[in-house]
Amino acid sequence: MTETRLTPHFLLEEFTLSSKALSMGVKNTPTQEHLQNIQALAEQMEKVRALFDQRIEITSGYRNPVVNAAVGGVPNSAHALGHAADFHVAEQTDLNAAKRIRDSGLKWDQLIYEKNRCVHISFAPAMRQMVMRQPGGPGSPVHKGLEPSGK
Question: Residues with Cβ < 8 Å from 39, sequence gap 6 or more?
Fold first, then answer.
């Protein structure tokens, strides 16, 4: 299997590898438009990596429509368009990583701290700078801010 380097620190395969796709026996191949979005996503993730100067592990990136539906994603999910990644930063808790990104001056569309799971970031064109938390895991309500009020 050949690797496709998108940026100095990220491979295409990091953004398209999907355990759900593998378990279903489907290919998680992006369209040409989505491939362009994934390239832009990798370039933005280089900025996130530079903020920490640490390795970033992508846990979920692009999801084709079949895979996105199988994991319960909404049809217009940033993941399904190639604009989003879920990740961990080496030597950082997910909450601390999300706080550092929030306070960094980087531009993004959505930054979500998914408690006990990952940090989600999207770079969809709207670049709304939304900061949220999802304390209950996949499918649970999403709330404004990284922590409840008063913390």
Answer: 6
d(CA 46, CA 10): 8
Return the amino acid letter for 48: V
In tens digits, the chain (151 residues) has pLDDT values of 578 999 999 999 999 999 999 999 999 999 999 999 999 999 999 999 999 999 999 999 999 999 999 988 888 899 999 999 999 999 999 999 999 999 999 999 999 999 989 999 999 999 999 999 999 877 789 999 998 875 5
Contact 35, 70 (CB under 8 A): no
Q: Rounded to 5 degrees, what are φ and ψ at 15? A: -90, -15
70 — phi, psi (to 5°)? Answer: -65, -30
> Hey, what CATH class is 5-20+29-144 in?
alpha beta
DSSP character for 64?
-
CA distances from 109 to 13, 41, 78, 81 (A): 23, 11, 10, 13
- Residue pair 82/35 in contact (Cβ under 8 Å)? The answer is yes
Domain locations in the chain? 5-20+29-144
Distance (Å, rounded) from C-alpha 92 to C-alpha 30? 30
Q: Which amino acid is residue 25, in one-letter code?
A: G
